[in-house]
Design brief:
It is built from 9 helices and 10 strands. By secondary structure, the protein is an alpha/beta fold. The protein folds into 2 domains: 158 residues, P-loop containing nucleotide triphosphate hydrolases (Rossmann fold), CATH 3.40.50; 80 residues, no CATH class. The strands form 2 sheets. It has a 6-stranded mixed sheet, with helices on both faces. A 4-stranded antiparallel sheet has the order 2-1-4-5, with helices on one face.
Length: 245
């Protein structure tokens, strides 16, 4: 579904992503891990169109999207979450999701028509909220939700855009252990229906969910394989622990 070739991003003399070749199989849950500063989030920003590469190519669904911006890639079926929760705090939970669903219709810019009259959009928003256990909070402002529920709302917003591919950037960051477990269960459910690429520092989460793992270090791919192969890789242990023991 997603492929990069020699993908590179330079910031002056610093090479944040250095010739990365990456292949994401359709239907897989693929984790990208690595020490702090390995280039993971920069890679995500390149994949989603937030950044333009200095060199290399990105193909999504067989189409070259290297020069497309984030909005265009979203319209093609890429959904992205961020390290910091990204919701509209002064809108209700329902309005947050309804706006996302409306962005996929021809009525996105029907400025003089009441959004409440868009029956299909409202139905889609309610379905997604129900799926995430948030329907009971539909009238609350997003800012009033607890941190774990705000993370769920962000995922609901992403799914309301009807993506084929989900790019999830450290979804458990800042969550309590209980909220993180709840989120892990939710992501596991989504993995049965979506292709997911996950950046995550929570190793139990990664090893429990991922089918394939790519390890980055200093902007390059250090290793790729199954969870068992990554656990046994001496180079990966050295990158994380500073030792080959």
């Amino acid at each position: 579904m997603l492929r990069t070739r020699e993908l590179t991003k330079r910031f002056g003399a610093h090479v944040a992503v250095d010739g990365v070749d990456l292949e994401i199989r359709r239907g897989a849950l693929h984790a990208i891990i690595g020490p702090n500063g390995a280039g993971k989030t920069t890679l995500f920003n390149l994949l989603s169109g937030e950044l333009r590469p200095s060199a290399g190519t990105i193909a999504f669904g067989g189409r070259d999207v290297t020069r497309l911006d984030a909005t265009s890639r979203s319209q093609l079926g890429m959904g992205r979450s961020f390290q910091r929760t990204n919701v509209f705090p002064n809108l209700t939970v329902f309005e947050n999701v309804r706006l996302a669903a409306q962005s996929r219709t021809g009525d996105s810019f029907a400025l003089w028509r009441s959004a409440a009259a868009l029956a299909g959009v409202n139905e889609r928003a309610e379905h997604v909220l129900d799926e995430f256990g948030l329907l009971g909070y539909r009238s609350q402002l997003a800012s009033e939700l607890a941190g774990g529920d705000q993370r769920l709302l962000e995922l609901a917003i992403t799914l309301a855009t009807e993506p084929e591919l989900l790019l999830l950037d450290e979804p458990s960051q800042g969550l309590s252990p209980e909220d993180a477990r709840h989120l892990i269960d939710r992501i596991g459910t989504l993995a049965a229906r979506y292709t997911i690429v996950l950046i995550e520092h929570n190793m139990p989460l990664v090893m429990r969910l991922a089918e394939e793992i790519t390890v980055m270090n200093f902007g390059r791919v250090l290793a790729h394989g199954t969870p068992d192969e990554i656990r046994a890789n001496a180079d990966v242990r050295a990158a994380y622990l500073g030792t080959r023991a």
